[in-house]
Amino acid sequence: MIRQPGAAELVQAVIGWLSDQDGAAARSPYMVRVAINALSIVQRELEQGGAAQAEAARRLAGLLGHGGDFEALNAGLVDRIRAGAIAPDDPALLDHLSRTALAMIAIDQPRYRHALAAPTTEAMLPAHPVTLVEVSPRDGLQNEKTILPTAAKVELISRAVAAGVKRIEVASFVHPGKVPQMADAEAVIAALPKMPDVETIGLVLNKRGALRALETAVDEIGMVCVASDAFGQRNQGQTVEQSIAAAGDVLRLARDNGRSAQVTVAVAFGCPFTGRTDPARVVDIVRQLAAFAPREIALADTIGVARPAEVTALIAKVQAETGALPLRVHFHDTRGTGVANAVAAIAAGVRTVDAAIGGTGGCPFAPGAAGNVASEDVVYATDGATGLDLAVLIETAGWLAQQLGKASESSLAHAGDFNNS
Predict the structure, then answer these.
(1) Pick from 190, 194, 197, 274: nearest CA to 240
(2) Are the beta carbons of 124 and 55 closer than 8 angstroms?
């Protein structure tokens, strides 16, 4: 049985202690901001009393890995915090903050609680540790000359789900005159069948797009931030700083309306107009975005210039700043390095990868950008880590190529699986 006074006492003590610790903020500014944000939300719910109070306490207990046992969680921690006996770099406190960061990600998404309810051990690792986010219905189609009818888009989504996809980018809420392929975003979402345990994502570039998305049943909003002023002006009419501010507005708007939200940093490795992107600039952008507590942050190789060693290096730099905040990666296969980059990202600790069936897509505002890394190629290269049905993906790649009137871009669509055992 959860003791509410224990929960409230812990929350208030941690918030007060963190707010007074200049050293903690200097050592781990991201974790401190996220911890305060997370605990502040829980505290407001605790103060509401009744069902909200009980639910907040249950969430906090489960997400902190103590199964609702606040007696164990409180074992001396509050007294040590108040007495100043815990240093900013104390492992016990940093572990607490890490779990609180996970709580921030999951607080508005009850479906994730089971994954965060207890500390992970090797024996408890998920059967399929890599999540593939299928982006063919949005990023895959937005740069194709052939505009598919709504019914075909819905079938593409259904086929992806049949392959086992659990997160799927279904549309973008952008100006139909600039991206006519996405003009039917609302119609696509309205026509989708019920898909239990599947999360749909709608991409937006600004608050106006987010408001459109919130009028639909889409589960999650994906915002785009840019790492290049030149690309940002062409892609969404924003500088880097303006896109960061817009991302903050969209993330707050989504959270206020009970939706999950994440953000992608476009041209994180290179810009078609200004060349290679400075990793330090990307890290600084991610640091600012992390303060808004998104579900995750994605690093996007929008024009396909990254190489595996660069992917590994940038992920390490970003992880040093973001701690427990999950990263996602998004690669294009312009120079044939997309699959290798995805594998490198996974080896570096990233557990969520964007990909598009058939290797479709590209960016309308990025000259020379080829299609996304193909879902079937990533699934083959990661050898079962995604848990997706490779045969269904290959079949769907062929079907999609027919719909678009062009050959599939993926290697597996041409060569097929290798089942010679």
Answers:
(1) 274
(2) no
The answer as to whether 125 is a domain residue is: no
Q: How far apart are CA 397 and CA 380, in angstroms?
A: 14
Give the CATH number of the domain where residue 368 resides: 3.20.20.70
Residue 395, pLDDT score: 96
Identify whether residues 324 and 248 lie together within a single domain: yes
- Judge if 37 and 104 occupy the same domain: yes
DSSP secondary structure of 124-188:
G--SS--EEEE-IIIIITTT-SS---HHHHHHHHHHHHHTT--EEEEEEE--TTT-GGGTTHHHH
Residues 294 and 342 in one domain: yes
| Residues annotated as part of the active site | 363
Q: Which of 119, 153, 173 is the last residue of a domain?
A: 119
pLDDT mean across residues, the chain: 78
From residue 383, give the alpha-carbon distance in Å to each of 1, 128, 326, 389, 390.
43, 10, 22, 11, 10
pLDDT at 105: 39
pLDDT of the residue at 225: 93
Q: In the chain, how many domains are there?
A: 2
pLDDT number for residue 113? 35
Tokens representing residue 243 in the block: 């896109």
Q: Environment class of residue 83 by beta-carbon count within 10 Å: exposed (0-12), middle (13-18) or buried (19+)?
A: exposed
CA angle 249, 107, 81 (to 5 degrees): 105
* Residue 73 belongs to a domain: yes
For 406, the token pair is: 């062009």
Which tokens sit at 364?
A: 């309308």
pLDDT tens sequence across 313-324: 999 999 888 877
- CB-hemisphere CA count at 13 Å for 44? 6
Q: What is the pLDDT of residue 264?
A: 96
> Coil, helix or strand for 405?
coil
For residue 138, the enclosing domain spans 131-415
262 shares its domain with 357 = yes
113 and 192 housed in the same domain: no
State the Cα–Cα distance between residues 88 and 21, nearest whole angstrom.
8
Contact 283, 229 (CB under 8 A): no
Question: pLDDT for 244-281, tens place per residue?
Answer: 999 999 999 998 888 899 999 999 999 989 999 999 99
In a shared domain, residues 87 and 175: no
Query: Are 80 and 136 in a shared domain?
Result: no
Residues 190 and 139 both lie in one domain: yes
